[in-house]
Amino acid sequence: MATKHEQILDYIETLPVGNKISVRQIAKELNVSEGTAYRAIKEAENQSLVSTIERVGTIRIEKKKKENIERLTFAEIINIVDGHVLGGREGLYKTLNKFVIGAMKLDAMMRYTEAGSLLIVGNRTNAHELALKEGAAVLITGGFDTDEHVKKLADEKKLPIISTSYDSFTVATMINRAIYDQLIKKEIVLVEDIYTSYEQSYYLYIDEKVEAWHRLNEETSHSRYPVVDRNHRVVGMVTSKDVIGKDRSLTIDKVMTKHPMTVQTKTSLANAAHMMVWEGIEIMPVVDQQHKLKGLISRQDVLKALQYLQRQPQVGETIDDLVSSQMVVAGEDGNGMVFRMEVTPQMTNQLGSLSYGVFTSLVIESSSRLLRKFKKGDLVVENLSVYFIKPVQIESMVDIKPQIMEVGRKFAKVDVALYHEKSLVGKALLMAQLIDR
Fold first, then answer.
1. What are phi and psi of 241, to 5 degrees?
2. Residue 94 carries which DSSP code?
3. 219, 208 in Cβ contact below 8 A?
4. Is residue 313 part of a domain?
5. N or C: which end of the chain has fewer CB within 10 A?
6. What integer pLDDT is reported at residue 68 of this predicted model?
7. Residue 365 domain boundaries
8. The pLDDT value given to residue 139
9. What angle do CA 300, 304, 310 make, to 5 degrees?
10. Mind listing the pLDDT tens digit for each residue in 121-150?
């Protein structure tokens, strides 16, 4: 039987998109406590079933597909620009195709304004009205209001009209940044993208006998299984080491390892890989917020997926991508390889000097390239100590000199020095675990 929490989630899923919900309303309609209702709504938000907007409330939204993540909903726009809704609340769940800045004459503006777009404009009531008639939402900058008949039109058309105190240029920059962030997120693989669902997984119940492990082992040839209670909550893991030499009539809870490490579907694959490599875990249960079993991931699947990703082109270019593409081999000195790179505007802080974050990327990338000469594999950074970094101005050419201090089968220690015009400007020590491919 479904728990109250699950019943609330099922109820929220049946609500029409755009419907407003509240803790009090859910508690009253489903006869549950407000605490239970609040926790369920928070879980619905994690599952992208609802969105909470300041000064608006919580509304049921359309669950976005991963391939369309670069499209923002009008509800998300409100949070980005710290705006408030003047009208058309029922259209907040809709996504925008493009945005237009209304810094031109009215007829020229309308040529670019189409259904599904967002017109960013100041205190021009006639532009607000025409945009809504064209099927576009409106974002009014400068903190201005609009006429009552425009607000009524927004309600009729179910198209949001939003006001923000920021200017048009700032708003456009903020929305562009959000779209770019979404593109980068789209490329980040999560556990939910590769895990095997529990319908296709093998597991044991806590009250089953050790004999059940042996039957599953013969049937599947696997040796590790998650242990669940009768509500499907993960309570342990049982492996061949746990059952060897044990009486087959014992119950699983007597031999299992309690409180196993787990991941959730929204955990990044890199994080899951790090946990599995460092803890030496072959198989890890995937659970939801209530710790119920959703499926399994294996270390082999995780590493395969990460290796596949390294061969794929990325849509959004991160700092790591920038460093990797621009760092070149300048030659070798007595201690090892020397890499060279120019400090571009994207690599600087607000003072126009090489940023601390980019320096750490340089250290990791140069160490990784040097270690690949000795071992075919990847590294997982365990610790990175930056001793000092001096200001290096924009458009400077820097040399990066990594030097191996220690290297073993599973572990490496690398000293990295950064030079500008033969002067030492940065020094760091990196310690990492090595993973064979």
1. -65, -35
2. P
3. no
4. no
5. N
6. 47
7. 319-436
8. 93
9. 150
10. 988 898 999 999 989 999 999 989 999 999
